[in-house]
Amino acid sequence: MQNQQKPFRLITIPVSHYCEKVRWTLDYLKLTYVEEPHMPPFYRFATSKVGGGTVPVLVTEDKVFTDSTDILQYLDSISPNEAKLYPTNSQQRQEVEQLEELFDEQLGTAIRSWAYFYIVDNNKIIKEKWTQNVPNFEKLLFPIVYPPMRSLVRKKYDVNAESVGQYYQQINSIFEKVSGLLADGRSYLVGDKISAADITFASLAAPILQPPQHPIKSSDSEELPAEMLSKINKFRESIAGKFALKLYENWR
Ligand SMILES: N[C@@H](CCC(=O)N[C@@H](CS)C(=O)NCC(=O)O)C(=O)O
Known about the structure:
Bound molecules: glutathione
CATH class of the largest domain: Mainly Alpha
């Protein structure tokens, strides 16, 4: 049970897939929270004020959580048994945790670098992505702030023609692993109910699947480079892609 009086604070960059992982979990668990959406680099003022760095950051009355997995584990610890996203069976819990770590460390990062490669030079697309739901003054500053940040984004996320193929392969190999797990006809990645592994997979894969139920609007298909769009369509048609899209349809 949410044993605090006030709603949680969730500091986000709204389009961030790690933020979506936490937002979905809060919605799924029907916990009350207020999202504080910011654009890069303004989110830093909000997160550093509470001792954090990257987003998402969850602020409770007692504690600040600065990593999406720590946030999910905390939210799970205050949720009733029937809603838990981490199985009570220790073998299954370990499987969920291992998958969540794989998706966090290797899928979310690869998708971010791969996707930026196609759009980093397109100010219109980046503006649409970065400024959804953020305060107006941040939105107004986008044309000044983004051009000098572009090279930082490239550097920080290793966005370049040499690495893009390797990130594409990394995404494909995780999609193949997920498709393999689903080959026995199971409905969820671990056990017989939705878990943190499913929510993590679907939310981190969302940027390359563009589920219609996602709370942040996707780019219009016609705006995306043809090569990116054709690969997105392939991801959407894969077994793992269809699985994540179904999770969005049924649970988001
Ligand atoms: N392991 C972290 C990753 C979070 C993360 O990479 N957040 C990105 C947004 S997608 C971020 O804050 N980037 C800005 C930065 O690194 O300063 C988590 O799961 O919370």
